[in-house]
Amino acid sequence: MGLLEAILISVIAASTPLLLAAAGELVVERSGVLNLGVEGMMIMGAACGFAGCWLTGSTFLGALCGIAAGAALSLVFAMLTLGLAVNQVAAGLALTILGTGLSGLIGAGFVGQRIVPAPHLDIPFITTLPVVGKLFFGQDGFVYFSILLVIAIWWFLYRTRAGLILRATGDNHTSAHALGYPVLKIRLLAVLFGGGCAGLAGAYLPLAYTPFFIPGMTAGRGWIALALVVFSSWRPGRLVGGAYLFGAVTILQLHAQALGLGIPSQLMTSLPYLATVVVLVLISRSRGIAGSAAPASLGMVFVPDR
């Protein structure tokens, strides 16, 4: 039971940054914008989040610094793709390269430093219950916020008029513009929201997952988050299951290495990314699952009539 509890807690911790980043990217893509710079925004959030926490001694302020860093980098993407109508794929890849370089510069002075990780919830007599206690009532605030965030996104997209307008913008930006909706403004807000979520996901890594910062600590999680959006068919409910599935693959390969199964460690480490490729291939072969759910205007440049 102790081993099972440890594995499940580790899965939740590994899944939380994926869920946070993918939730923000889902809103971005629902608006019709494809931002491939999630990895760059995450690593910037990690560097700035750790720096903010180390300088102020506050996990909350560190998280805000991570959100601000991700949103600021996404603003650069928005200026290029929405303001100058630059190709979204090229701009997103450039954003990842920019974020990786800037994070190394910002975080260079903090490598080797340690902070106190984010506190965990502790309810007397409840958190100490076997398995379910720590699993449901002993997590840090990031975990609970990630679940609430997905619920809020679902409510916004399917239960509010603003969410309907955002989805309409992603499905047909020309018709939305003809109806008088500010397409560029809607997409700008969505991109900033997605950037903030990616920055928070990156900040989670040094603030809660590991109490220190190292360059490149996101280790490709931004790319997995992008795949999760497709895996979920752009639906918030499925996003949770997908994030925890990929988090489980990440953790189980570590336990498999610890058991000494004789499988090369390099192959085991690549399992989460191999799973990402397999899932994308399977989904791309099923147009009924992924093709019809994708926003029709996703990745298309929009230039309003003047």
CATH class: Mainly Alpha
Number of helices: 14
Helix content: over 70%
Radius of gyration using CA atoms only: 19 Å
- Indicate the structural class: mainly alpha
Distance between the amino and carboxyl termini: 65 Å
Strand content is under 5%
Number of strands: 0
Mean pLDDT: 89
Order of helices and strands: HHHHHHHHHHHHHH
Looking at the overall shape, the CATH architecture is Orthogonal Bundle
Note the overall shape.
globular
Domain count = 1
CATH topology: ABC transporter involved in vitamin B12 uptake, BtuC
Pick out the low-confidence regions: none
The main pleated sheet reads as: none
Question: What brief labels describe this structure?
Answer:
ABC transporter involved in vitamin B12 uptake, BtuC; 306 residues; 14 helices; mainly alpha
Description:
- It is built from 14 helices and no strands.
- The model has no long low-confidence stretch (mean pLDDT 89).
- It has a single domain, classed as ABC transporter involved in vitamin B12 uptake, BtuC (Orthogonal Bundle), CATH 1.10.3470.
- It has helices spanning 2-30, 38-56, 59-83, 88-107, 132-137, 141-159, 161-171, 173-178, 183-209, 221-231, 236-258, 265-269, 271-284, 287-291.
- By secondary structure, the chain is mostly helical.
- The chain is 72% helix and 0% strand.
- It is globular, with a radius of gyration of 19 Å.
